[in-house]
Amino acid sequence: MAWRILTVKFFVLCLFGTLIISYFLAISSMVDGCNCNDPPTHSKISEGENFFEKQARNSGHKLGILVPYRDRFEELMVFIPHMQNFLKKQNIVNHIYVMNQVDSYRFNRASLINVGFELSMIDGCDYIAMHDVDLLPLNSNLSYAFPADGPVHLAAPHLHPRYHYPTFVGGILILKRKHFKQVNGMSNKYWGWGLEDDEFYVRLKEAGLNITRPQNISTGTHDTFRHMHDRLRRRRDMAKCYNQREVTRKRDRQTGLSTLQYSLESHRKISVDGGDQVSLLEVRLYCDRTVTPWCECTPIPKTSEKSTLSPRLSVISHGS
């Protein structure tokens, strides 16, 4: 009898032990199967987006958008988010530089582009887009990709809302870093509105650089770009004083990137509508009135002007 009781107890203990072991094995397999720390599997759409992002990042190119600027706040607030969205769709790695001229001289678009070029090179941009703040691309086939075959004029005469002469290269011009340096950048003699692009065109042609323009664009002069310039509110400074008219109609072989003089008052990073940060650069230009007295259409003081600015600044100062 005692032997039977021991046998029954042993059987019960074995059964109970088997149940306990099975229970823990089941829990262990559930935890291993869940692996809750693993990231979720991406859908095909996400995988496609990641592929293009990596492709753009691995292309090795970075575009610097150079925007010469003064007193165009409304246009700038439209320009920044528009361009960021436009370039994001093309997977263009880029950074926007807004060069705000804060001195009292007349506006000098070309010199500001020279300044932006220097600073964009410090940030590793290997090509640039000289870009008006009031001109927005609308046609998605306008490519801001690296101009492997030479300068690309996006705002071509057959597409620009206003300027249609064959040598026009203003509005939006894309070119490599080495080509901008090859022609010594832009002339610093153009204070006030106009003609700096025409002089730059001559520099490019003399250097043997072929300028290409968009082809097979289905839109035209009315719907390829949005031109935000209000001629009544934003009157162009078209004054010509001293010998400005005569000098600025000739090829400038004295000034350019190598003779650029400026002071960088501040370098701020700003964001519009939650987008990527852009660089807002407050730039103070220098004018030698013995060379370009038309930087101010006022009588030249009898005492000779001497600059208190460093002739070339290569270090970015960061303002608050």
Please tell me about this protein's structure.
The protein is of the alpha/beta class and 320 residues long. The protein contains 7 helices and 9 strands; from the N terminus they run ααβαβαββββααβαββ. It has helices at residues 2-34, 44-57, 73-89, 109-122, 177-182, 196-206, 244-247, and strands at residues 63-69, 94-101, 127-131, 135-137, 152-153, 172-176, 225-227, 262-270, 278-285. The strands form 2 sheets. A 7-stranded mixed sheet has the order 5-6-3-1-2-9-8. Strands 4-7 form a two-stranded antiparallel ribbon. A hairpin with a 7-residue loop joins strand 8 and strand 9 (278-285). It starts with a helix and ends in a 35-residue tail after the last strand. Mean pLDDT is 83; it is low at 24-58 and 304-320.
